[in-house]
Amino acid sequence: MSSNLRARVIGSIVLLIGLSLLVRNLHMGQMLLLTGALLFLAAALFFGRSYLQRETDWWMILPAGVSFTVGIIWLLSFAGILPDGLANIIFLGGAALSFWAIWMEKTHRPYAGLAQYPALLLTAGALLAFLSDQNVLRSEWIVPSLLFLTGLLLVSRNWSKRGR
């Protein structure tokens, strides 16, 4: 990793941490949610614009997607239309979509194919959070279900290689 790329990665992480701390310190009550949502959506726009300007910065998809997801969650909370338990599902789903978008770059970027694994885990987490929110899945079923799905994935990925 070049020092220029490393500086941008570290700078992006510090920017998001600073942004969240600034929003928290504004102490504006209900307007805090709206201000935070707008700041996170602006950060998503910044990261997305950086990716569109330089496709070599494909990793900017992740902070753009996560910032956008957090901004949408805060905006829905401000509007009062976010049901209890839905924030976790939206966050996990948004993070999963960000990793799936990076995975789509696998033909152009050598390490982007590795994004499939966190994308699968986050997608499974969003699905399990949804099922748990709907009272279809109880908490004692989560770990066994994750282990079963992981085993199923590993077996199915190597099934075609078995006969060779």
List the helices and strands and how they pair.
Layout: H1 3-24, H2 30-53, H3 61-79, H4 86-103, H5 116-133, H6 142-162
Describe this structure in words.
With 164 residues, the chain is an all-alpha fold. It has two domains: 1-82, no CATH class; 84-164. The protein is 74% helix and 0% strand. It has six helices and no strands. The protein is flat and about 50 Å long. The model has no long low-confidence stretch (mean pLDDT 80).
Helical fraction equals over 70%
Number of discrete helical segments: 6
Unreliable residue stretches: none
How many discrete domains? 2
Category by helix and strand content: mainly alpha
Order of helices and strands: HHHHHH
Q: Main sheet, how many strands, which sense, barrel?
A: none
Outline:
The chain has helices at residues 3-24, 30-53, 61-79, 86-103, 116-133, 142-162.
Comma- or semicolon-separated keywords:
mainly alpha; 6 helices
